[in-house]
Specification:
Domain HTH lacI-type (chains A, B): 7-61
Keywords (chains A, B): DNA-binding, Transcription, Transcription regulation
Structural class of chain A: alpha/beta
Strand content of chain A: 15-25%
InterPro entries (chains A, B): HTH_LacI, Lambda_DNA-bd_dom_sf, Peripla_BP/Lac1_sug-bd_dom, Peripla_BP_I
Shape of chain A: elongated
GO molecular function (chains A, B): DNA-binding transcription factor activity; transcription cis-regulatory region binding
Number of domains of chain A: 3
Distance between the termini of chain A: 84 Å
Protein name (chains A, B): LacI family transcriptional regulator
CATH topology of the largest domain in chain A: Rossmann fold
Largest sheet of chain A: 6 strands, parallel
Order of helices and strands of chain A: HHHHEHEHEHEEHEHEHEHEEHEE
Oligomer: homodimer
Largest interface: A-B, 59 and 59 residues
Chain lengths: 335, 335
Amino acid sequence: MTTQSRATLADVAMLAGVSSKTVSRVFAGAGNVSSDTRERVLKAAKRLRFRPNNLARNLRRGGVTNTVAFVIGDLKNPFYFHVAAGIERELALRGLTMVLATTDDSPDSEERVVDALISQRVRALLLIPIADDQSYLEGERQLGTPVVSVDRPARNLVADSVVLQNRQGMADAVRSLTAIGHRRIGFISNPSAMYTQRERLAGYREALREVGVTETAQWERLDDDPDISPELAVQSLLDLPDPPTAIVAGNNRGSAGAVRVLRNLEPPVAFIGFDDFELADALDISVVAYDPMELGRTAARLALEHLADPDSFTKQVEIPTRLIHRGSGEIPPPR
Amino acid sequence: MTTQSRATLADVAMLAGVSSKTVSRVFAGAGNVSSDTRERVLKAAKRLRFRPNNLARNLRRGGVTNTVAFVIGDLKNPFYFHVAAGIERELALRGLTMVLATTDDSPDSEERVVDALISQRVRALLLIPIADDQSYLEGERQLGTPVVSVDRPARNLVADSVVLQNRQGMADAVRSLTAIGHRRIGFISNPSAMYTQRERLAGYREALREVGVTETAQWERLDDDPDISPELAVQSLLDLPDPPTAIVAGNNRGSAGAVRVLRNLEPPVAFIGFDDFELADALDISVVAYDPMELGRTAARLALEHLADPDSFTKQVEIPTRLIHRGSGEIPPPR
DNA sequence: ACAACTTCGGACAGCGCTGACATTTTTGTT
DNA sequence: AACAAAAATGTCAGCGCTGTCCGAAGTTGT
C-alpha cells in the first residue's frame, strides 16, 4: 500500500452517503446544504484526505485558472525579485497565485515561454519584454487576457505598462551635480541598448544641455557586453586627460563597480547611482531610488483592473523616482 | 466582436478536416501523423490561434501538472530569491514551472497556502518550514507528492531536506578568530529562535569551548523581535565593560547592522558575517559564504529524484559553506 | 387538511483533452 | 495481383468537477 490514489468528490460522497453534487456544494462554499449534511461531508472528506481538484474545477468553469504569470529575464537580478514580491503581494490579496518564468534574457525564448504559460491558461500575463516585438501576444490580448508590460513598454502591442521615471530621475541626479558646479560628468551604462538605459541616457544629456554642455560623447561609456566590467568603464573615464569630476551610473551593476573604484580616490569623484542598494547608506552613496515593489504592485493592479473591466482603455503608469542625498553626490568639483 | 472564445481541438479539427484526435497527436508531439496532415493541422491551428489547454490535458492525464511549488516566508529576503532562482533554473531544464507562494512568515497561513497549492495539484512541494509542525503534509507525501524541506528540516514529517552547514560554517568562522588570539567574541542573532540560528549559535559555542571559553552568555545577543535593530545589538556589545574584540553575525541582516556600526571604530573590531552580500568585497567584510542558488538547485533535484523513484529513501543534504577572508575577520585583537 | 412556498439533495451532461482500441490506408513482399 | 505488415486516422469514453434542471422533503398560512 504505497501510492494509493487520491480521493475524489465521488469517493467522499459515497462515504458520506450523499451525492457528489452535495459534496461539491460543501466545498464550493455556496449552495443550500444543511449543517447536518455539511458536517458529515466534511468528516468524510477529512477521513479520505480529500482535496478538491482545481484542475477539474477550472476546466469545468471555462478554462481559466487563479494564476498570473510573471515573465522575467533573469531571476538573479535583485531588482526583478522585488518587483515579483510586489506582484505576489498584490495578487495574494485577491486569492491569485503567481508563477514565475524566466527567459534567461534570451529574446528567442520569450515567445516559447509565454506560449507555455498561455497553455496553462494563466489569468493574466505580466512581463518584462526582452524581445524586440511582442506582437505575438495580440491574439491573446484580444481573447481577453490582460497583458502588462513591466519596466519597459511592449513593442508592437497595445498593452498596459508600468515604467519608472527614468529620464526625469536621471536628469534630476545630473542637475543636482551641475548645481554644485560639476560640468564634466561621466555616464556609465551596460547593457546600454535597453529602453531604461536609453531613457536615462537621454535624461543625462538633457540635464547637461541645460547648462550648455552638449559634447557629452567622450564621457559616455555605453557598453553592451556583460563581460565588460563597470570597474573598467569607470577606470577608463578616470584615465581621460581631462577626467570627469562626477560620475553617474545607469543601473546598480554600474554602482557596484563605481563604488569599488571610486573609494579612497584623491581628489574624490562625486557619484550618483540609479537604483538603491543594500548598504548604500553605509557607504554614503547617493542614488536615484524608487520602490521596486510598487512597480510590481502597480503592474498586478493594472492586470486586475483589466480583468474586472476588459474594455477599459490601455494605461501607462510611471513610478516616481527620488534622489537620495547621502554624500557621494554632494562632493563638489575640485577647487 | 470583443472577446471571442478560444479555439479548441475540435475547432481546429473541423477546419483542417480531420478528427480531433489527429490534432491532439500533432500537438502532443508523438504519434503517427503524415507530414501532409500535420501541416494542414498546424495551419488551421494558426488561423484559429489555437493553444492546447493544459488544464484539460493534465486532468485527462491523471490530474498532475507541470508545476512545482516553492513556499517561502517572505519574498523580500534576497536569500530566498536566490534559492528560488536555483529552483527555477533546475526545473526549467525538465520543462517544469515554478509557482511561488508566500506565507508572510506566519505559521498559521502555512497550512492554508500549502492546501491551496495541493488543490492546484502541484507536482512537488518545496518549502521553507515556518510552522512548528508539518505533519499535515504526511497524507500528501503518502500520495506520492515529493516534499522537500529547504533551509530547515521539517518537523514531524519524513521528508527530504536541504540545509546549510550552519554549525560547521559558524564554527570555522569563530575558529579563525580564536586562532589569531580573539577570546571575547560577540554573537548577534535575530530572529534567534529558528533552526539555522540555533545551529549557528551551537557552532559558535563549540568553537569557543575548544579554546576553553565556556561562559559565552554575556556576548550573545539573541533576539526575536524584528524591531530590535542589529545596530542596537552590536552597540550593546560594545558598551560592555569588557567589550568583545570580535563579533560574528548569524545572518546578513546582522551583517548589515554590524557594518554600519563597526565602520571607522578605533580600535577596530574584527567581524565575520554569515551569508555573503553585495559589496561585501568592497567593504572588506569577511563572511561565511555559500551558494544559495545551489541550495535551490539541490532542492529541486531532490524533488525530481523522488518523482522518478517514489520509493527512494529520504535524503538529507548539506550545502557546504566556506569562509571568505576579506580583511574584517583578520583583524587581530588589540595589543 | 391542502396549497404554496422554501430548502435540500440528486441526475445528468459536458468543460477540452487523450488513452485504448478499431478501422482505414499505404507500403512492402513475393 | 494478392496478401501481410506497418502507418495513419478515427471512435469513444471518461479524467473530476459544477451548472442546469428537477424532485422530494419540510414549513407556513388559511
